[in-house]
Design goal:
Blueprint (H helix, E strand, L loop, with lengths): L36 E9 L6 E6 L4 E6 L4 H7 L7 E5 L4 E2 L5 E5 L5 E4 L3 H16 L15 E2 L6 E2 L2 H9 L3 H15 L5
Parallel strand pairs: 3-6
Antiparallel strand pairs: 1-2, 1-4, 2-3, 4-7, 5-6, 8-9
Keywords: Metal-binding, Zinc, Zinc-finger
Protein name: MYND-type domain-containing protein
Organism: Mycena chlorophos
Length: 193
């Protein structure tokens, strides 16, 4: 998947190379310069002494994600692992646990993070960003659609004024979407190798 730019958004979350589902996770570790992100919504907390979550990927495949970091409880809390949020596993390799369940074992907290939204919301935001780009409106205000030069410091969405940005943050829902948009825009500029 070719990388997009700040002004051209073409990220495809259905790309099975960059965002593999349970049926397309590579069997071998990534080569140098290669990576992928496994996206899965947390559907159940199965923690008993160690953080373990049942998750559902984008094609409704279910598996578990278990934390085996140096401080697993603290890491799961720091990542804000909550039911309904999307956990992102960087270049994850399948693991079969002792009880026979299949999933992912998080050993380094830097190889996973959580987006504060559902899978449906993630796809909806991604589709909206693609439409804005396809319609040539990436340089318009996120709130009023006027030409814009100012940017949100975190996600780079454009605004025509501080007033529009403040209003969109408070009433337009940008506060909840900002961290998700920031990650999507980063992925849009990534060459997945």
């Amino acid at each position: 998947m070719a990388a997009g730019t700040d002004d051209v958004y073409k990220l495809n979350l259905d790309d099975i190379i960059a965002f593999p589902d349970t049926a397309h996770v590579p069997l071998l570790p990534p080569s140098p310069g290669e990576s992928w992100i496994i996206l899965a919504e947390i559907v159940e907390n199965e923690s008993l002494g160690r953080p373990v979550f049942r998750v559902r990927d984008k094609i409704n495949g279910y598996f578990i994600v278990a934390f085996y970091t140096d401080d697993p409880m603290e890491d799961a809390v720091a990542m804000k692992c909550k039911i309904g949020h999307v956990i992102c596993i960087v270049s994850g390799m399948r693991h079969t646990f002792l009880d026979g369940q299949s999933g992912y074992r998080i050993e380094d907290p830097n190889t996973a993070f959580v987006l504060p939204c559902s899978m449906a919301k993630l796809k909806e935001i991604n589709a909206r960003l693609r439409k804005i780009s396809d319609d040539g409106e990436m340089n318009k205000c996120n709130a009023c659609k006027k030409p814009a030069e100012l940017r949100c410091a975190k996600c780079q969405v454009k605004y025509c004024s501080a007033g529009c940005q403040s209003s969109d943050w408070k009433e337009g829902g940008h506060r909840k979407e900002c961290p998700v948009i920031a990650k999507l825009r980063l992925w849009n500029r990534t060459d997945w190798g």
